[in-house]
Design goal:
Length: about 375
């Protein structure tokens, strides 16, 4: 199942496809007893997608069979033992994908000529992804970080493993000659190549970067590197060979401190905006301004959800299942703001007080 959404991947998902491009969304659960309902709900929503395909006169028989086969393949690939809060299946002629999201989604089926990506975009923004580069003289590991975990990234040439004759970093460490490993020309070249590789990763998927390693390794990387110069350094060795949990435990205090600074910064910007009449709050007011590309900063409480319908002039409250109800309007707002260059920040529940779970700072 897919987790990481890069700009390149998003552009590919938004590419027009031969009709029908089917998007199947269903909420999932991490723990029992709610987790027990996930298999039934998943089978039911996929069955509903097949039903819509069967009754759509615009779908030729051969194309319907192709898409149904890909829905079945996607269903077989779903691992419900490791789901998060939402699941998205994309299927179109000749292709399918399965996405696990750390953010709830409404249960729905959409047939169109493009895939429905707003929920992926919102989940990505909420997860606050980052990269971790763990450096050693014989191995350099790249970790994909999110809200509460890291996972080793096997892409972009990583992990990089140094294969050099007569090179024994463990012996150097035993005899107290660890620093000399980072004065070796081969190590300089190794770290320079790693810097170039992570630079390519950052160009494809820009995120904050943390670099871990022995102080000597960090000093050398800072000397020979370019892409890693602005990274936050964590002077802790051994993580290039460590488990994902060990890396997360080392990074967690820094991530939590950064999140706290972000919340304080958002609160200060919202308060300043009130004094300059640049403050908007509530889903309707924020949505109206987002459509006009006026929102510079969007703040959303992490678990804020609301169902609305459009009465022509405003968004008004609605019940789930109502005709024309929009259950993922918050994700629509997030996607629209990101598309128009806004800074989108998710904050803990209760942070926004009377703003009603969502607020923004206007550009003008």
């Amino acid at each position: 199942m897919e987790h990481a959404l890069s700009p390149t991947t998003l552009a590919e998902l938004r590419r027009p496809r031969p009709y029908p491009a089917v998007s199947v969304l269903t909420p999932t659960h991490r723990r029992e007893p709610d987790k027990a309902q996930d298999p039934v709900r998943l089978r039911n929503v996929v069955a509903e997608a097949k039903k819509q395909l069967e009754h759509d006169p615009a779908v030729p028989r051969d194309r319907r069979a192709d898409v149904v086969a890909h829905l079945d393949q996607a269903l077989a690939e779903v691992d419900l033992t490791h789901t998060e809060d939402g699941l998205v299946i994309f299927a179109a002629p000749g292709e399918h994908q399965v996405w696990s999201l750390a953010r709830p989604v409404p249960e729905r089926v959409v047939l169109s000529d493009t895939f429905l990506t707003r929920n992926l975009v919102s989940a990505q923004a909420a997860e606050r992804p980052f990269w971790v580069l763990s450096v050693a003289s014989d191995r350099i590991t790249l970790w994909n970080g999110g809200a509460d975990r890291v996972a080793e990234e096997h892409a972009g040439g990583f992990p990089m493993i140094r294969d050099t004759e007569n090179f024994d970093p463990e012996r150097q460490e035993r005899v107290g000659d660890q620093r000399s490993a980072y004065r070796d020309e081969g190590t300089r070249h190794f770290l320079r190549e790693a810097d170039r590789a992570v630079g390519a990763v950052l160009r494809d998927s820009p995120r904050p970067l943390y670099v871990t390693g022995e102080p000597a390794a960090l000093a050398l990387l800072n000397d020979v590197g370019e892409a890693t110069k602005g990274a936050a350094q964590v002077p802790r060795g051994g993580l290039a060979h460590a488990s994902a949990d060990a890396v997360w435990q080392a990074l967690r205090p820094l991530i939590q401190a950064e999140e706290a600074r972000t919340v304080d910064s958002v609160a200060d910007q919202l308060e300043a905006a009130r004094g300059h009449r640049e403050f908007v709050a509530g889903v309707d007011e924020v949505w109206q301004n987002a459509k006009q590309a006026r929102v510079r900063l969007l703040a959303v409480e992490e678990n804020y959800r609301v169902t609305v319908r459009d009465d022509g002039d405003h968004l008004v409250p609605a019940d789930s299942g109502d005709l024309d109800a929009r259950e993922d309007i918050v994700d629509e707002v997030v996607e629209q703001c990101l598309e128009t260059g806004a800074d989108v920040r998710f904050v803990p529940d209760g942070t926004l007080g009377e703003a009603g779970g969502i607020a923004g700072v206007l550009r003008y």
